[in-house]
Amino acid sequence: MTKRTWVLAGILMVVAAVAVFRQPAQGRVGIPAPDIANQVWLNSEPKRMADLRGHVVLVEFWTFGCYNCRNVEPYVKDWHKNYASRGLVVIGVHSPEFDYEHDLENVKRHIRQNDIRYAVPIDNDFTTWDRYGNRYWPAFYLIDKQGVIRYTRFGEGGYGQTEQQIQALLAER
User: Fold this and answer.
1) 3-state SS string over the chain?
2) How far apart are CA 128 and CA 102, in angstroms?
3) Predicted TM-score of the model (pTM)
4) pLDDT string in tens for the chain (173-residue length)
5) Which domains are assigned to the chain?
6) Of 76, 104, 150, 169, which residue has the fewest beta carbons closer than 10 angstroms?
């Protein structure tokens, strides 16, 4: 084998190993939701999944500079407004894509200017992102009252379906 063939074979082995051992985000439905590990939270004190039992939790991964994230923002705000009193807890995990999105003051400004009232943990080091095995902006993880991930949605769209899932989980005992 030539050196090039060995290099290509090595690359293929690494790619295969990553595919086998890294669980895709979609495959996380049915498992207990990981805790959100971030130390800095805006609009809220830190929350632990164990303390949220009995509530339906929507964990959204977003970043304020993401065009698609800005497009889903009105829906997330409406779900928070319409369902918080019925037991929905929205947690918008801010995981920055670009350098300027790491700046806490920029995140605070966006939250203030856009009247975001739900909890926003700052995930600059992608600790929570990695715990969820997330790969996308925006991404939604709906967690039932027992703390199990029951639904995921990635990217824009599917707002009616996501809202139906929220309603169904809130109706469960």
Assistant:
1) CCHHHHHHHHHHHHHHHHHHHCCCHHHHCCCECCCCCCCCEECCCCCCHHHHCCCEEEEEEECCCCHHHHHHHHHHHHHHHHHHHHCEEEEEEECCCCHHHHCHHHHHHHHHHCCCCCEEEECCCCHHHHHCCCCCCCEEEEECCCCEEEEEEECCCCHHHHHHHHHHHHHCC
2) 15
3) 0.85
4) 666 655 455 454 544 444 433 444 556 899 999 999 999 999 999 999 999 999 999 999 999 999 999 999 999 999 999 999 999 999 999 999 999 999 999 999 999 999 999 999 999 999 999 999 999 999 999 999 999 999 999 999 999 999 999 999 999 98
5) 3-171 (3.40.30.10)
6) 104
